Amino acid sequence: MKKYSYVGISFVILIFGIWAVNELSNRLSGPDFYEGETVPDFSFTNQHGQTITNKDFEGKVYVLEFFFTTCPSICPIMNQNMKKIQDSFYGNPEFGIASITIDPQHDTPEVMKKYAENYGAKHPHWHFLTGDKETIYKLSNEGFKLYTAEEESAPGGFEHSGLFALIDKDGNIRSRYDEFGNPKIYYNGLEDNEIEMLKEDIKKLLK
């Protein structure tokens, strides 16, 4: 009788141990996160005239946005919030930001450098990227499925999303699930509560 009790207790301890290990793994690796598509290869020029590719972000958790420097509507809010994110992870070599212009004809590296300085972009891995327009639009519309287009009637002459993409160290798009169990996929770069969510999720992916 004692033998069976001992076996039963051992089994319970084993099950509890397996559960505890799995729970710890969940907290550290974030398997409750949605894992989307791998970011397509890209190669652009940053504000310092350097060629930056997706390979430069390998081993880093980074946030990606599409914007343009003369945007009179949502871009200033987006980049004020991106600055807050930068400040939360400033000095962390495993964190980065990719801000890709959708108006490369105007947004040269020189223009982007001044814009970056105006927004206090000091993190060495915050890259303001410009390049071939067709390539940028293909990356946005097809690679990320984030709508981008020229539109004369839109503020500043362009339409684009105010969403931020969160990308893990392996180059995969990640996000948390919403209250209905659906993946958010992207984070609203205009909403304070979404920025706080994004900060929390960056921390989890950095672990």
UniProtKB/TrEMBL annotation:
Query: Where would I find the Thioredoxin domain in this sequence?
Result: 33-207
Q: Does the keyword Disulfide bond apply?
A: yes
UniProt cross-references to InterPro entries, sorted A to Z: SCO1/SenC, Thioredoxin-like_sf, Thioredoxin_domain
Q: Which residues bind Cu cation?
A: C71, C75, H160
Specify one Pfam family.
Answer: SCO1-SenC
Gene Ontology molecular function: any one = metal ion binding
- Kindly list the residue ranges recorded as spanning the membrane: 6-24
> Which Gene3D superfamilies does the entry link to?
Glutaredoxin
Q: List the disulfide bonds.
A: C71-C75
UniProt entry keywords in alphabetical sequence? Copper, Disulfide bond, Membrane, Metal-binding, Transmembrane, Transmembrane helix
By sequence similarity, the record places it as follows: Belongs to the SCO1/2 family.
Question: What is the name listed in the Swiss-Prot or TrEMBL entry for this protein?
Answer: Photosynthetic protein synthase II
